[in-house]
Design a protein that fits this description.
about 625 residues; 5 domains; 25 strands; 2-enoyl-CoA Hydratase, Chain A, domain 1; Pdz3 Domain; six-stranded mixed beta sheet; alpha+beta; single chain
Length: about 625
């Protein structure tokens, strides 16, 4: 598709590729362009001296790229320059499609491990399972390869074939599989089903708003209605955004024709575009609760804000992320395959609230950058999000929302030593806006809502934070490794049941001392202590020395006692094991649904539906009869 015709949205930005236009300065702009000319002169003077006098030849392309990146970095985190590869990735992100096998991979024992195959993809049809190790790609060993290299080798052109070597727990010999790559569509609806008789659930958690999102949501709800649901939960937690057009179409499914959805305001506030519902709602009569949290951003916030301001749904959870800026893509065709993504406007909900949280704006000045694939991310903000995350899944959600990353890109960041910091500052919170920043707005029926960036829920429910030992288990992927080992012992996988019983818990306790968690937290000095024991034996040292070494051994062993998890951790461990067991036996969707029985925000939504009077009271709070 020619870039000049490409119209999309990235991170729920209005994105349009347009050619550069000739600049004509009006009288009012003369001072502005005078300042531009002065700035060019200063830059040119510095650049000229560098070229003439620097002690070695310079890379002019790199210098200009650094200058462009520095300029955009001082504006905000979302303005960005794209080269050819960046544009390719942009098209993939907005379409939700890529050519590959259809698997999510991580690292285990220095090899890539399949976290989960996507259903109805070449990987799932080839019989690949969670926990399978990819020990070879095209005959080349994958030991200690980075995730980025692995992903690049597995992806390729549609209809091309890749040969991989698989190692599976409980299978004696490795085997080769030839898989033909296909165009993989990443679904926006991660799971759907009934969480209680008559209550439907549609999850868009940790997915994106891509080209077919509204149709996927509509199809899922149609099926649920055929199954007899009378209420619906729409889960937008951890959803970092996507296409503006799809955000409006999803809201369209529930709002009456002509209802306002979102307005887009540029620097000149006289220029604003209002998006309204274009059709009669397909599901206008369905009682609706929307789940949001700090990872809900951009397109997800547009949907949540529109439904709240039109008094169409109750929002349950925690305040959303607050990414409400609009990016436009300018086609720099004179430079070849290049484009500029520039923040040009802000989003406002129907009541007039700005979605954008100003405290998230990067202050001017150069920031230390961390390379992450095709991106350079501000180190301070990157580490801040990771440090405030109680577990790796939350970190992935926040990285996706904050930096507009794909899930595999966010996980790639966490595969670096940065993941060791997750949770260390879980008790720290984002600096709250002062009360002077809080402005009162009114919904369509007169309910009070607040405008201080992000979307506040109608019912605040914070999900419980697992104990630190459970967070550490998640970080080290202990639950995944255990289930792969536990189910792998069963000769017939189909006979295994998705139940966390006493026998399984006992097996998990026995597994912990041999787990990656125990290895990662092994106190320093074990190897040195063993060397001292051998030296004491060889040198014939007296018994007091041996007793001292024994005492030191006991003290070091005590540091492993944390593996005997407290009783308070048991519900979290049961939930994690159940989800991993369902993932192994029944796939990703079953895994997502199985954990909802432990989900406080989902359970709160169910209680509201069980009490229609309370639901209506909250939906009409402050409305005069």
């Amino acid at each position: 598709m020619p870039l000049s015709r490409f119209i999309a949205s990235f991170g729920c930005a209005v994105i349009t590729l347009i050619a550069p236009l000739p600049v004509q300065a009006s009288n009012a702009d003369k001072d502005l362009y005078g300042d531009i000319n002065d700035s060019w002169e200063r830059f040119g003077a510095v650049y000229g001296r560098v070229v003439e006098h620097y002690y070695q030849d310079v890379d002019h392309e790199q210098i200009m790229r650094s200058a462009i990146d520095g300029l955009l970095r001082d504006l905000d985190p979302y303005s960005q320059f794209f080269g050819a590869e960046g544009l390719r990735q942009l098209l993939q992100d907005t379409s939700g499609k890529f050519a590959g096998l259809g698997i999510t991979v991580g690292l285990k024992d220095h090899y890539p491990v399949i976290i989960a195959p996507i259903e109805n993809t070449p990987a799932s049809r080839a019989g690949l399972l969670p926990g399978d190790l990819i020990v070879g790609i095209e005959g080349r060993d994958t030991f200690d390869l980075g995730l980025e290299q692995i992903v690049n080798r597995l992806r390729g052109e549609p209809e091309s074939t890749v040969h991989i070597t698989i190692s599976r727990r409980g299978v004696e010999n490795d085997w080769d599989v030839a898989i033909t790559r296909e165009l993989i569509t990443i679904r926006s609806v991660a799971a759907s089903g009934q969480v209680s008789p008559g209550v439907g659930y549609v999850s868009m958690r940790q997915t994106r708003f891509s080209e077919e999102t509204s149709e996927e949501v509509a199809q899922a709800i149609r099926q649920l209605r055929e199954d007899g649901i009378h209420s619906l939960i729409l889960d937008l937690r951890g959803n970092p955004g996507g296409l503006l057009s799809q955000a409006t179409e999803v809201a369209d499914l529930f709002l009456e024709k002509g209802a306002p959805i979102v307005s887009v305001r540029e620097r000149d506030h006289d220029r604003a575009e209002l998006k309204i519902s274009q059709r009669s709602p397909l599901f206008g009569d369905l009682p609706l609760i929307v789940l949001i949290d700090g990872g809900s951003a951009s397109a997800a916030e547009i949907v949540a804000g529109a439904l709240q301001d039109n008094d169409r749904a109750l929002l349950v959870g925690t305040r959303s992320f607050g990414k409400g800026s609009v990016q436009t893509i300018f086609d720099l065709r004179d430079l070849g395959q290049a484009a500029l993504k520039l923040t040009t406007a802000l989003y406002y909900t129907p009541s007039g609230r700005s979605i954008h949280r100003q405290s998230l704006t990067v202050p001017p000045g150069a920031l230390l950058q961390v390379p992450a694939g095709d991106y350079d991310l501000p180190a301070g903000l990157l580490l801040g999000l990771i440090l405030r995350s109680p577990d790796s899944e939350t970190a992935v959600e926040r990285l996706q929302a904050r930096f507009e990353l794909e899930e595999d890109e966010a996980r790639l960041i966490l595969s670096t030593p940065l993941d060791a910091f997750i949770g260390e500052a879980a008790d720290r919170q984002l600096t709250a806006e002062s009360s002077t920043d809080t402005v009162i707005y009114r919904t369509r029926r007169g309910r009070t809502v607040f405008g201080h960036g992000g979307i506040d829920p109608d019912v605040t429910v914070t999900d419980s934070t697992p104990p630190m030992i459970v967070q550490q288990m998640h970080r080290q992927r202990v639950f995944f490794d255990f289930v792969v080992d536990y189910v792998g012992r069963d000769a017939d996988r189909e006979t295994a049941t998705a139940a966390v019983d006493a026998q399984m818990l006992e097996a998990f306790r026995r597994f912990l001392p041999q787990s990656q968690l125990a290895h990662a937290r092994q106190p320093d000095g074990y190897d040195e202590l063993e060397q001292l024991r051998r030296l004491a034996q060889d040198a014939g040292w007296n018994g007091s020395v041996v007793q001292a070494l024994d005492s030191l051994q006991v003290a070091m062993d005590r540091r492993r006692e944390y593996l005997n998890f407290p009783e308070a951790a048991l519900p979290f461990i049961r939930e994690a094991l159940l989800r991993e067991l369902d993932l192994r036996l029944h796939g990703r969707e079953a895994s997502l649904l199985s954990g909802l029985q432990y989900d406080h925000q989902v359970q709160e939504a169910l209680q509201l539906f069980e009490n229609p009077a309370r639901y209506q009271e909250l939906l009409l709070a402050g409305v005069d009869d």
